[in-house]
Design goal:
Length: 128
């Protein structure tokens, strides 16, 4: 698990290897990740959008941007947390993801970024 706190918002990420499969005559490696967003600040906040940079060992990079997370824009009061799971496909057994959430503080209406710590994706069979 990797964790990081930005502006009182703690992000924790756990990853899993889901398996391999063929798509368009190429092998793909499926990974899942579980993100917990915990509000350790004294203000209520809302997650508005996300930015992901997905990298694999073959130098492929994919950028994913969008509203909310899995169709939600969670509001977190002080002490509350929100957990969701998602996944990605790589064309190699190794990779990494990094990014940030765009959030707004309801107390002062200021927008701010919360860093998602870089986390590694690796198929267990490919590790020495």
């Amino acid at each position: 698990m990797v964790q990081q706190v930005t502006s009182g918002i703690k992000i924790s990420v756990e990853t899993t290897f889901e398996g391999t499969f063929y798509k368009n005559y190429k092998v793909h490696f499926a990974f899942g990740y579980k993100v917990t967003i915990e509000n350790q600040s004294k203000d209520s906040v809302q997650l508005n959008s996300r930015y992901w940079k997905i990298l694999d060992a073959l130098n492929n990079t994919e950028i994913v941007e969008g509203e909310g997370v899995i169709g939600q824009k969670p509001v977190l009061k002080p002490g509350e947390s929100h957990t969701y799971t998602s996944g990605c496909l790589l064309t190699s057994p190794f990779g990494a993801m990094e990014g940030y959430y765009n959030m707004v503080n309801f107390t002062n209406s200021k927008k701010f970024k919360v860093i998602i710590p870089t986390f590694k994706l690796s198929a267990p069979f490919a590790i020495n």
